[in-house]
Amino acid sequence: MWQRPLLCQLSCLLLLAGCTAMDSSRRDAEPVAGAANLVVDGVPAVPESVLAGLERYRNTRSASLLGWIGDGVLIATRFGNTTQLHQVDAPLGMRRQITFFPEPVAGASVHPDPARNGFVYLKDVGGSEFYQMFWYDNASADSMLLSDGKSRYTGVSWSPSGRWLGYSTTERNGTDWDLHAKDLRGGRMILQEGEGVGWSIEDWSRDDRQVLISQYISVNESRLYELDVDAGKPRRLLPDVTAGFGGVRYGPGRSVYFTSDMNGEYRRLHRLDLDSGAIEVLTAEAPWDVESFAVSRDRQRIAYVLNEDGVSRLFARSLVDGAFIALPPLPRGIVSGLRFHPDSTRLGFTLRSATAPSDVFSVDFRARVLTRWTHSELGGIDTNRLTEPELVRYPTFDDRSIPAFVYRPQGTPPHPVIVNIHGGPESQSRPSFSSTTQYYVNELGVAVIYPNVRGSRGYGKTYLKLDNGRLREDSVRDIGALLDWIAAVPDLDADRVAVTGGSYGGYMVLASVVHYGDRLRAGIERVGISNFVTFLENTQPYRQDLRRVEYGDERDPDMRAFLTSISPLTQVDKITTPMLISQGQNDPRVPASESEQIVAALKKGDIPVWHVVARDEGHGFRKKSNRDYLTAVTAMFVERHLFDGKPDDEAR
User: Tens digit of pLDDT for each residue in 198-207?
Assistant: First the structure.
């Protein structure tokens, strides 16, 4: 029996999503007749109280810097259902939309020659991540497909003259990552071809004659090469070093700048003299990762970002004499997307914080002035109610301290808790804006905790390796320690805890309800791994070897047995916690079969499970209509299991 939506607000929401809520008594997943992009199983209609509370929170926006166009900026933002490209010609000026697709645009790179007046952008279909390259002509507003329409293309990189567009592609065999360079006037070079994955173009020399390339083996190991374009043969740099590397850029003369954890715990900024082989560490005193950096086009300045306990600090230095360049004060937050203006005197970037969505800023090195380019809307949310998190550290089973960001609500304690576990597995939870988190804290009175369990980046390479191989479940034990900590904190309610996460974080959710189900009221899992063996066998071929380095090779009998033993699917008989599971049907990373098999096993065990599948999504929901529906269902699920369907009055 189909239930009628409770109000026109819900009707509009579900119409956009192409879905109608299904009565909870229906146990078989079915699409909605005539609009079948969402398939739901066991999900009841969303009540009016949930929709009313969410209305403002689902209409926030953000903006991210992609590059400079003249004296304006190219940004990614969303005004409709998907993220598209916009141009802003002056600070806080109108965002002029220039792409209009039903699918989101994944990124763009502006041509370095202003006379060409255009850029290349990437776009896939249905979340498949088989990105295609398109040339956009700014004068005519015409787009031209540059790729084959079916293979995967990533990592676009212009040579300084703009003659060559470099990129990584799987077009040869669907598995290996080859490096090509295309002349838009005709012709193509093969820069690197052979077996292997993780290849990327890092930078070009000023005369277009040399290319810095890298191969990512794992978060703990990369390899760097310099390729002579005429000779066509790469020369490995630092061949005796086994370490993790980040960005790599040419500096003045025959110098190369790179980040690496070689000979230390943290990713530091280094300078390599290509002629002598001498290496200088530029951030030796900083006990934090240099998470990103950029070099100006004239190779005279460098800007870099330190990740200090999850918060960014921006620095700039002269590459002529090494002196620091004074910068104006920046708001506290997370800095990303560094882009020098072609004149080398301005630096653009994206800045976000726990209480402000991403926006675009720039610094003028001559005037020492901070300029704001965008001011994203908050959907009518009262900014005075937005909550800053507290950074805490809690003890775990081996006497280590686990960092976590805690968002605490107002109202009478003790508060129910949502534990939000990041993916990666080597990502890092940081104090970044989330309208959903702010909704839980401010409207429902729920405390939200973001732990950085062992294996998270940002705390040194020793910490990063603590969950490798057969240590995988030690990170799950860190969640058990967090539940102990919650029980000892007076203002938190250890009897009302839910756990949520996506991708690898989805595995962590499933593993948590396997091991600590008697202490959890609900599990919310998005695009998660339920069985490491089937995941490794079914993820896209161009990803398999990368993931085998991280998790283990399922083709080895001993490792296969271990991976099977720790997989939630093989321990599903231990799960008693109600679950909400969501998945994109076209997910190339964690195939939809991972969700399907755990849902089937839970239903067989008569465990309450809600299942939401988007047929036009991949690794997460990128379309606003789909995301709005899932957010509403998730909020309803939280209310039902943390409040027995009746949130505390004081939180309203």
Answer: 999 999 999 9
Residue spans of alpha helices (H) in 567-623: 592-604
SS3 of residue 517 by DSSP: helix
Evaluate if residue 65 carries a pLDDT over 80. yes
Query: Rounded distance, CA 341 to CA 71, Å?
Result: 8
Q: How far apart are CA 492 and CA 409, in angstroms?
A: 10
**Three-state DSSP class for residue 12:** helix
Q: Which residues pair with 248 in a beta bridge?
A: 258
**CA gap 173, 541 in Å, rounded:** 10
Tell me: pLDDT of 24 over 70: no
Tell me how far apart the alpha carbons of residues 350 and 217 are, in angstroms, rounded to a whole number.
28
CA distances from 637 to 26, 430, 506 (A): 17, 25, 16
What DSSP string runs through 494-505?
A: EEEEEEEEETHH
Taking the complete model, does pTM exceed 0.85, yes or no?
Answer: yes
Strand 164-169's sheet: what is its strand order? 153-158, 164-169, 178-183, 188-192
Element (H, E) at 264: none
Rg (CA), the chain: 25
The two tokens of residue 44 are 């009841």
Is the bond leading into 328 cis (omega within 30 degrees of zero)?
no
DSSP state of 205: -
Q: Which residues pair with 236 in a beta bridge?
A: 225
Residue 275's alpha-carbon distances to 233, 254, 322, in angstroms, are 18, 7, 20
Query: 124 to each of 70, 85, 475, 527, 586, how far by Cα in Å?
Result: 28, 14, 34, 19, 11
User: What one-character DSSP code corresponds to residue 411?
Assistant: S
- For residue 405, give both structure tokens: 């960001």
For the stretch 292-316, pLDDT in tens is 999 999 999 999 999 999 999 999 9
| pLDDT tier, 514 (very low <50, low <70, confident <90, very high otherwise) | very high
**Cα–Cα distance, 141 to 122 (Å, whole number):** 16
Q: How far apart are CA 435 and CA 452, in angstroms?
A: 20
Sorting pLDDT into bands at 50, 70 and 90, what band is 269? very high
Minimal CA–CA distance to 396: which of 437, 468, 455? Answer: 455
Report the candidate in 456, 331, 465 with the shortest Cα–Cα distance to residue 393.
456
Q: Mention every residue, 6+ apart, whose C-beta is less than 8 A from residue 284.
A: 268
pLDDT more than 90, % of the chain: 86
Q: pLDDT band at 47, cuts 50/70/90?
A: confident
In the predicted model, what is the mean pLDDT of residues 325-334?
Answer: 96
Q: What is d(CA 401, CA 454) in angstroms, rounded to the nearest whole number?
A: 9
Give the tokens for residue 255. 């110098």
- What DSSP string describes 451-462? E--TT-TTS-HH
Task: Give the Å distances, CA to CA, from 542 to 151, 170, 269.
Answer: 11, 7, 30
